[in-house]
């Protein structure tokens, strides 16, 4: 049965995994006859990073929450309060006009508002992108704030975790939890052959991704592999630091801007590396694998273990163990036959994340809640 679906998100403005997945899911749903709308708060004049199907209705409320940080002290508080008040008023108007069958909060940032403003009887789904990591971070959240967050999340009709590990953690404190993996909507023609001596890193240059580990590992690998290069695609708060480090490492490391042609980068590479301290899923892994590229990744909570079969289509490395990571990476770099076999296995394994395999699980959930 066709549904009227409303997604709520801050903006489709950056080259990120959440933005790519959200766009791919909405495009798939619209192509299969569902009435799909997305309400954003901070889109403004930012261009869409990924093509959005013309059948998806994009409504930007023009709140620009980030503008409050131009001010300080009481003025910032007042400006933030005014923007929140305007957001709630405009969101209420849109939800009343759209009359959705289901509302989906992509990330936790608007959950409190959505639980208060959603029309009576309309199910609310919240997607978990490592929200539980925030609850467990005792250094950043007081006990009272953690309890408040849990209290709010309990008002949602379903919390969807991206990995089995995240779902298990949520099940210790919430009843309405299910697990649906992300989809891999990447369309790539051809496959990597594993012969080009190029290692690839794709991701935000932020503390979660631990680019310091990446460069430390490469410093151990590069001297014995002078004909190999590391290519980094990403942006973020640590990019200036990464740039300064790359300048000291000779020409074996190349830092690139994010690109909309990431499939070409996978096809030009032989190995993907992921040094994250934690992952809500790790979209780059199934993307690279679908192109025939094996992955070396930390076995962090929770994405890599759900995606990589250790020793078959990549290597899982004990978290934070840079020595072991360098050893596994060298093993792949030194053995073209192993890279080729793992790449073949990776391409096959990635098929389970195809949209036509994952999206029916969303349709089943929509039917269950309505």
What does this structure look like?
The protein has 370 residues and is α/β, with parallel strands linked by helices. The protein folds into two domains: 4-183 and 354-369, 3-Layer(aba) Sandwich (Rossmann fold); 198-353, Glycogen Phosphorylase B (Rossmann fold, 3-Layer(aba) Sandwich). The protein has helices at 17-31, 73-98, 111-117, 131-136, 143-153, 164-170, 211-221, 239-246, 262-267, 284-290, 303-307, 322-334, 336-349, 355-369, and strands spanning 4-9, 35-40, 57-60, 102-106, 124-128, 158-161, 177-179, 198-202, 229-233, 253-256, 271-274, 295-298, 314-317. Strands 3-2-1-4-5-6-7 form a seven-stranded parallel β-sheet, sandwiched between helices. A six-stranded parallel β-sheet has the order 10-9-8-11-12-13, sandwiched between helices. The chain is globular and about 65 Å long.
What is the CATH architecture descriptor of the largest domain? 3-Layer(aba) Sandwich
Strand content: 15-25%
Could you tell me the CATH topology label of the largest domain: Rossmann fold
The count of β-strands is: 13
CATH superfamily of the largest domain, called what?
A: Glycogen Phosphorylase B
Order of helices and strands: EHEEHEHEHHEHEEHEHEHEHEHEHHH
| Biggest sheet details | 7 strands, parallel
Q: What is the 3D form? A: globular
User: Rounded to an integer, what's the Rg over CA atoms?
Assistant: 21 Å
User: Largest beta sheet: what is the strand line-up?
Assistant: 3-2-1-4-5-6-7
CATH class of the largest domain: Alpha Beta
Integer tally of domains: 2
Unreliable segments (pLDDT under 50, ≥5 consecutive)?
none
Mean pLDDT: 92
What structural class should be given to the helix and strand makeup?
alpha/beta
Q: Helical percent range?
A: 40-55%
N-to-C span: 10 Å
Query: Can you count the helices?
Result: 14
């Amino acid at each position: 049965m066709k549904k009227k679906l409303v997604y709520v998100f801050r903006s489709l403005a950056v080259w990120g995994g959440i933005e790519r997945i959200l766009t791919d899911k909405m495009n798939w749903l619209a192509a299969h006859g569902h009435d799909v709308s997305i309400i954003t708060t901070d889109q403004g004049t930012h261009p869409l990073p990924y093509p959005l199907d013309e059948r998806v209705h994009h409504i930007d409320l023009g709140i620009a929450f980030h503008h409050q940080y131009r001010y300080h002290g009481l003025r910032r508080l007042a400006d933030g309060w005014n923007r929140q008040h305007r957001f709630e008023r405009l969101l209420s108007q849109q939800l009343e006009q759209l009359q959705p069958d289901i509302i989906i909060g992509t990330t936790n940032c608007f959950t409190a508002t959505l639980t208060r403003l959603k029309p009576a009887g309309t199910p609310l789904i919240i997607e978990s992108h490592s929200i539980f990591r925030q609850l467990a971070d005792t250094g950043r959240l007081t006990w009272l704030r953690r309890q408040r967050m849990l209290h709010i999340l309990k008002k949602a009709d379903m919390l969807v975790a991206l990995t089995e590990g995240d779902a298990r953690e949520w099940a210790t404190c919430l009843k309405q939890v299910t697990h649906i993996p992300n989809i891999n909507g990447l369309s790539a023609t051809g496959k990597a052959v594993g012969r080009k001596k190029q290692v690839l890193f794709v991701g935000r240059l932020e503390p979660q991704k631990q680019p310091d580990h990446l460069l430390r590992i490469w410093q151990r690998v590069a001297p014995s592999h002078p004909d190999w290069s590391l290519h980094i695609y990403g942006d973020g708060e640590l990019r200036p630091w990464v740039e300064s480090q790359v300048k000291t490492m000779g020409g074996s490391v190349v830092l690139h801007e994010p690109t909309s042609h990431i499939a070409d980068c996978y096809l030009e590479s032989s190995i993907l590396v992921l040094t994250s301290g934690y992952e809500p899923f790790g979209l780059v892994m199934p993307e690279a694998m679908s192109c025939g590229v094996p992955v070396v990744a930390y076995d962090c909570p929770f994405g890599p273990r759900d995606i990589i079969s250790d020793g078959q289509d990549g290597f899982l490395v004990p978290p934070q163990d840079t020595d072991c990571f360098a050893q596994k990476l060298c093993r792949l770099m030194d053995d073209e036959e192993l890279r080729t076999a793992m790449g073949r296995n990776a391409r096959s394994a990635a098929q389970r994340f195809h949209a036509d395999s994952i999206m029916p699980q969303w349709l089943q959930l929509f039917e269950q809640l309505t």
